Amino acid sequence: MNAVLRLVDATAAAIRLPVAGLAADSDTAFPGRRAAVVFLQGCPLACNYCDSGPMAEARRASPGEWEAIHTFLEARRGEIDAVVFSGGEPTLHPELVAAADACRELGLAVGLHTAGPYPERLERLLPRLDWVALDTKGRGRDFDRIAGRERVWQHHVRSLGLLLDGDTPYECRTTVHWRDFDLESLERLALTLADCGVRRYAIQLARTAQCRHPDYRQAVPDAPSRESVEVLVRRLKPYFESLELRG
To answer: I want to staple 116 with a disulfide (CB 3.0 to 4.6 A). Which of 47, 156, 214, 216 is the partner?
Structure first.
């Protein structure tokens, strides 16, 4: 083994990230690319609609977790051309910067799924990222209510500002559970994002079967119909370059 390979292996072994799961091949996690998705353990938020289950619980990384992922990614070069870090909340982990560098050294594009609670860490990551999906949970204090944590929305706004001011491709996305939204509040959020300069937006309807809070697994009696949501999306489309309804 030459010195360069020894250095790469030693760097991978030194990175400590708690890995919650791996999707080996996705064509939806990173637009236009085939990506492996690395799910990292732990999230500082407590969204009632969350279906991540134990993935949200924080834990310390065990030796070799990231090294095994790095070995897998190295073996898949040519079959995938990107890696996406998701969670949980991947920016919870300071060593994500080193992991992103390691992926770029493999020739892989790097994507990130984040709610933006750590803008300083996102700022460090952005030069290493080729695409970001920013989870925008609500407007202002509604963000805190939906996220189950106080004073998070200000951090999210700073993260959004970094994306608006930078040149990294990104989309904003909102997971909609009808215990958190009605059509009017969803429309206000979308128009607020458009006014800020967001041009790519996705509305994702929550999957209720495994929601964190038991009440969120139950049907919402006055939930808007799918047809009414589609009508809203059609009305909002002129405000964005891309607007998708998912789920």
So the answer is: 156
Lowest-pLDDT range of 16-30, 44-58, 200-214: 44-58
Average pLDDT over residues 157-183: 98
**Confidence class of residue 11 from pLDDT cuts 50, 70 and 90?**
low
CA distance 17 to 63: 9
Assess contact for 181 and 232: CB atoms under 8 A: no
110/84 Cα distance (integer angstroms) = 6
Instruction: Enumerate the β-bridge partners of residue 77.
Output: 80
Strand 35-40: give its sheet, edge to edge.
Answer: 19-26, 35-40, 82-86, 109-114, 131-135, 170-176, 200-205, 242-246
The secondary element (H helix, E strand) that includes residue 201 is strand 200-205
| Cis amide prior to 42 (ω within 30 degrees) | no
Domain 3-246 fold is TIM Barrel (3.20.20)
What are the tokens at 237?
């489309």
